[in-house]
Write a structure and sequence with these properties.
Order of helices and strands: HHEHHEEHEHEHEEEEEHEHEHHHHH
Helix content: 55-70%
Number of helices: 14
Number of strands: 12
Distance between the termini: 30 Å
Length: 409
């Protein structure tokens, strides 16, 4: 009985003796495992990215709008276009009737061209906020101040601008007190927000926040607003949604049994929607990369079969000297397993290197997780064992006398 250590030593010697063949075998599996690891790190990173950026609503905050916040059903969007708009009166009604709501804010948005001196910024997101949105929204002031309830009530022409707009118009200069304009309207900058960065390549700092009543005066009261509601706790979060739903259904005359004529969005709903979408892509990518890994396994099996044919005399001599069928089978399985583990390890390192490079060179938080590495090693080991069984069995069942006669003949 050949010792396990000797078995792996023989397998390593055989791999070193046929470096080119072993390298090509390892390369096939390396590509499959590297693809799988890369896909997994990207998908996991995308989930983190969504949680940090897209669904960054804050704790126990939900939104209510005329239209759905994330759409995967085009028919639903067409149907939602017929909903009545949410008005400022709806905001006041919810604010008065919702006992579980800690803060009830409202917002509206559009895009405009903003000008300062001879500088111009296109497609600036202009956002109308109620004064208490400073406590609901996750944006943080960098300089200056937020507008007051009195400024909102009197529709003052003031603005708090994003970091991107501040960098473009006022590089190295405090923008507080400066005048920016759009068309014939002029806004006094009273503050700036901290930098948000970009989401999926789109700049999130090219915006200006103004009082909601100023926005409605400027853009027209027929604009549909969005309610932004923050509850004081988890239970109140659920109760607040129920109370808001009852208030709005009553005001909008939604009949019993009919669907809501508005949409409620939470961070969890955004993340769940994203995960359902990314899960489908993930399954497809895993299937494709798994096919690549299986192809690598088939290559290993064919190379091992060639190896059996080339090493017929070696097998015959070992059998004649007393090696059992299990010894031969174990040696060839060890060769297959070693090549797969080497290929899988290189693939894991390549996939992680790509993820680290992506995370270092971009704002995308590619997630490098230990379980992905473990899965890569397990996958490569399983492939090595599975596709090495047939060549190993063929080598083990060779008749030693016939093997020697065929080689010498």
């Amino acid at each position: 009985m050949v010792q396990v250590r000797d078995t792996f030593q023989l397998a390593a010697d055989a791999i070193r003796a046929h470096k080119l063949r072993a390298s090509l075998t390892i390369l096939g599996l390396t590509m499959g495992v590297a693809t799988l690891v890369t896909v997994m790190t990207i998908v996991q990173g995308a989930n983190v990215y969504v949680e940090q950026k897209i669904a960054n609503l804050g704790t126990n905050v939900f939104r209510v709008s005329k239209l759905p916040f994330a759409v995967v059903d085009f028919d639903l969007l067409i149907k939602a276009q017929k909903n009545k708009r949410l008005e400022y009166a709806d905001y006041l009604a919810v604010n008065d009737t919702c006992a579980a709501c800690g803060q009830v804010g409202a917002s509206a948005s559009g895009t405009l061209q903003i000008v300062y001196g001879n500088k111009q910024a296109d497609d600036v997101n202009i956002i109308g906020y109620t004064p208490n949105m400073i406590d609901i929204d996750t944006r943080t002031l960098a300089e200056g101040r937020y507008f007051t309830p009195g400024e909102d009530r009197h529709a003052a022409w003031v603005a708090v601008i994003g970091a991107g707009l501040a960098d473009q118009f006022f590089p190295g200069v405090n923008p507080v007190g400066k005048i920016i304009r759009t068309g014939s309207a002029e806004f006094t900058v009273i503050g700036t927000f901290e930098k948000l960065g970009s989401v999926l390549g789109q700049d999130q700092d090219n915006y200006a926040v103004i009082p909601l009543n100023t926005f409605l005066k400027f853009r027209g009261t027929r604009t549909s607003i969005t309610l932004e509601i923050k509850a004081p706790g988890k239970q109140a979060f659920k109760d607040a949604q129920d109370e808001v739903r009852v208030t709005l259904r009553t005001r909008r005359h939604d009949r019993p049994g009919d669907a809501d004529s508005f949409f409620i969005g939470t961070a969890d709903s955004y993340i769940s929607l994203w995960q359902s979408i990314s899960g489908s892509f993930f399954a497809v990518f895993v299937m494709v990369s798994s096919i690549s890994a299986v192809v690598g396994g088939i290559v290993i099996m064919n190379v091992m079969l060639v190896s059996v044919t080339e090493r017929t005399r070696e097998i015959g001599v070992r059998r004649a000297l007393g090696a059992t069928q299990w010894d031969i089978r174990r040696q060839f399985l060890a060769e297959s397993l070693m090549q797969c583990v080497i290929g899988g390890t290189i693939g894991i390192l390549a996939g992680f290197a790509f993820a680290v490079a992506l995370r270092s060179l971009t704002a995308f938080p590619a997630s490098v997780q230990t379980w992905v590495a473990v899965l890569g090693v397990v996958l490569s080991s399983v492939i090595g064992l599975f596709f090495g069984i047939y060549p190993a069995s063929k080598a083990a069942t060779l008749d030693p006398v016939a093997a020697l006669r065929r080689e010498t003949g």
